[in-house]
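Take just one protein record:
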Amino acid sequence: MDRTVDWAGELDGAIVIVDQCALPGSYRTSRIDTVDELIDAIQRLAVRGAPALGAAGALGVVLAARDADSASARRQAERIASARPTAVNLRWGVERALAALPHGAEAVLAEGRALLAEDERVNRAASANAAELVLRRCGRQPLRLLTHCNTGALATVAWGTALGVVWHLHAEGLVEEVLADETRPLLQGARLTAWELARAGVPYRVLPDSAAASAMAAGLVDCVLVGADRIAANGDVANKIGTYPLAISAARHGIPFVVVAPSSTVDETLASGSGIEIEQRAADEVTHSGGVRVTPEGARAYNPAFDVTPAELVTAVVTEHGVRSPEKTVRAQL
């Protein structure tokens, strides 16, 4: 598979993304030449996942910088950074690229390309750390793993975060099965995670989000693996809607609940998850399915894209540096 997010050509080139709205029915890439096109792709989730958004944000600054003066480029960059409010990596990527702006558009492109190369290294390291932790907690045996949303290569530039743990364990023959939450209402688990698992030859089943607790009660889950869109300083975790009830169920059944993310997803400026802005999505994502209305006319919807899991329900937050605590990263816990 190509990189989920990449830059094609030199400074006059373009962003190229894997269009995730087309999967699993069709694998195709889309070329993005303007800031408006990038914002549209971000908001309709053609590119999604916190690390992938960070990369897209950085490359978006290239689009803004090459055709405008510094002040205009910064205004366009702010539009990109604000396209989705919850995932901290989007603004992080934009700001990282903006730091190179005084040195010209070529320098911005070089920084964006550096971020692309770094993303896979960082996520491989974070998922390797998490795989080691999971084996220490669950034993070195074929494991039954439950995931939510999509945290594989499609959510990053390449490789993945929580699903990257699956890739490491599968390579050692240590995955019995993955249960992939369908992840309503946009079905990122059923559409994207299942697609990645099938391509990798990993045994899996898709289950309704509401069946996850029953799967735990039935003894079908050894560990829950999720990613993150923003992690507060105290360890509270914002992730795809439905993550919080998974953590509650895992705690009830004594199952490890492990969050895997790059350190760029940690927002040390927020003391707790109560300060995380939660994106509210359009009602028709709930009231319609496949373009067909499934609710009565006039039905309203509550459709937050994310929820916040309190730190006390999280077994570990694992980054490329090791297991993170609110005070420090503790490699010894691995």
